[in-house]
């Protein structure tokens, strides 16, 4: 394994863990996040009408953003 391969692996692992932490903040409220309720409250206070729908719509693809896909190989 070349040093370039190890460096790219480290970048991917750090990026993946960052995305996973952000996703768990958004979905479950872990790591000090507000969860879906907090996101809906934020959107509602910002003046959006269907805040619950807006908060929950991006929640579905978030876990799949962290999982490895065959196209990334």
Automatic annotation (TrEMBL):
**Keywords, A to Z?**
Membrane, Transmembrane, Transmembrane helix
**Where is it mainly found?**
membrane
InterPro entries hit by this protein: DoxX
Top-level taxon of origin: Bacteria
Q: Name one Pfam family in it.
A: DoxX
- Asked if the keyword Transmembrane belongs to this entry, the reply reads yes
| The keyword Membrane is assigned to this record | yes
Places the protein is found: Membrane
Q: How does it sit in the membrane?
A: Multi-pass membrane protein
What's the name of the protein?
DoxX family membrane protein
Q: Which organism is it from?
A: Kutzneria chonburiensis
């Amino acid at each position: 394994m070349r040093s370039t391969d190890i460096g790219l692996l480290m970048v991917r692992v750090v990026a993946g863990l960052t995305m996973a932490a952000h996703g768990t903040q958004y979905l479950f409220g872990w790591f000090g996040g507000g969860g879906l309720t907090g996101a809906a409250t934020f959107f509602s206070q910002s003046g959006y009408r269907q805040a619950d729908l807006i908060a929950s719509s991006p929640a579905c693809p978030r876990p799949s953003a962290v999982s490895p896909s065959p196209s990334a190989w």
